[in-house]
Amino acid sequence: MTTGQIAAQIETTFRQEHGKVLAVLIATLGDFALAEDALQDALIAALEQWKQDGVPRNPGAWITTIAKRKAIERIRRDSNFTRNQQVILDSLKGDEDDEEEEMETIPDERLKLMFTCCHPSLNLDAQVALTLRTLGGLSTHEIARAFLIPPTTMAQRLARARTKIRDAGIPYRVPPAELLPQRLDALLTVIYLIFNEGYVATSGDMLIRHELCSEAIRLCRILVELLPDKPISAEARGLLALMLLHDSRRDARVNGNGELVVLEDQDRAKWDHDRINEGTAILDYALRLLNPGPYQVQAAISAVHARAETAQKTDWAQIVELYQTLFQMTASPVVEVNRAVAMAMAGNPQAGLRILHHLKLEMEEFFPFHVAHADLLRRTNQREAAADAYERALELCQNNLEHAYLRRKLDELA
Amino acid sequence: MKYMMLNYRDEAAAANMTKEDQMQEMQDYNAFFEYARQRATIISGEAVRPTSAATTIRVRDGKTLTTDGPFVETREGLAGFYVIDCKDLDEAIEIASKIPVAREGSVEIRPVVTFE
Fold it and tell me: What is the pTM of this model?
């Protein structure tokens, strides 16, 4: 293997093992910040040694063992030695003896870590950053770049979150049954937020943005794997299916000129059919658990699109029905906007326009509303009104690619 | 871990309570106290008079400046507090959610510092 190949292999290994090792360390040390510091020390040591000897057979266990030693060194060096640290030290010493023969496997504690990172007493930005940093193993720099904020700001955000976990006594555990549905919901929100940040926003560094989508899918896979195979896991599976189905269209969403291509106009041959098949299979499994929820319904909508050979051949009537179900679950006006568009596609643009008319006041500042409105007006040959709606949408649009798309649509009307 | 739970409520609404409401509230607090005592260790808990009875002082250059009213004027005023020893933040949240004031006002949970 060349030095470059070894370096690449080491980086992949770090990425894969980061969350797992950190989760075990936090469980052993009972201290978030100490665990992270010890892991950093261990990774530096690993990099040195692996460059010479190659990546060991069981890298996760290797890093864990070294990190525990590094934690002991750090505690001993610490001048403000506390009683709590003595407790950690004693428990680690006991541990060390068992590790004479190399550990074969380390327990998977990542579920606990996910719930700690997404605890509702942390603000949402902090939850997202912390989840990406600890479980995704993205560097502070990469996360900062993905969210277009200065690295120092991101570093501060992460540090504040870690301090709060310790000072506020946020538990490190999988929540008990009565809290689990609510906390799981919060966790899914964070994962979906990470995905959407990568999927919807098309400004900034494209590569890093794709990585956010992949990270969200990876995190959701881990979550589904670790949750019990019971109805409680249905929405996590639904979200995983939804993200896979959306992600299957990644290459078709932007054309060779870097322009946005909407679903209707996409080259369906460019869709990733492995992703579609996997997403559909996961959704089918989720639905059999008989615990429906908004992620499963959204995945079902996405699956109907994925099954259609062309936009015209889409089963729009079924999509209208699914939006109806989704609205009953979420009561969100955004869902109503989508239902109106689906009705138009199903052959009844007048009914769609009537729904939009009712939403007008409420959605005045919401740009997708005006895009939908313009689209339906265009389809019913109300060109002037459609042009006005595109103008309004352009005023509210923040994204360059979408802006260019709307401008093209407006020009087509003239 | 000890947590201070600060109870905030709309003082105007509290001042206009009927006798029956006050009696009911007293019963609710007694029930909460019983519940919390069985769940965890209550270190202390007091109700305090409304901000109209508050005095704020500052010492500057050795002089004590005394002003009428609370340190910060807010829509909801501090009505009382508990200090309760809980297992972790989740237990503190669970107990705090049972404080009657949480249903109309709010409860701020603050971890108490332990000096080693």
Answer: 0.87
